[in-house]
Predict the 3D structure of the following.
Amino acid sequence: MANAERIHPLDARVFGGNGVVLNPVEARERISLRADDKAIAGLGKAIGLTLPKKPGKTISKGEVSALWIGPDEWLIIAAEGSDVETKLNKVKTGLYSVVAVNHRNTAIVVSGINAVNALNGGCPRDLSLEAFPVGDCSRTIIGKAEVVLWRLAEDSFHVECWRSFSDYVWKYLSDSAKSA
């Protein structure tokens, strides 16, 4: 019997030019976490960090990151094999929902001196450091695709998108980078 192998949707993609580099992010565990106030502390403890409670903030510890993307919603991104889903599901306090979105999402890192210009070619968000500092995240759009944008460094961004939109987002960003 043959086993199916999941191929990264952006496998073998490479882009670099005009001060912008695009890199597909390797496979990760991703969890859509929804929780009430009573569950937040226990859920954070289960994965070894304090879930951010302020809009658009993130926290990372080791290979686990939590991105606040809604009043009761976080996107948890962790190294493959970290078993974050099992750890979260062991929490016994409060109301919460843990949904693995590993196979739905993928990501692209956009970096370089013109990264902001490339992103602003299709993203209406103000990406100045004052308005969107390092460590902040936001749901937004690139072109017509909804994404979660996370500023990793002054000139580096993590663009989380659905796999089905990843080709579109990649092409949009590479085209935008050419005129950045």
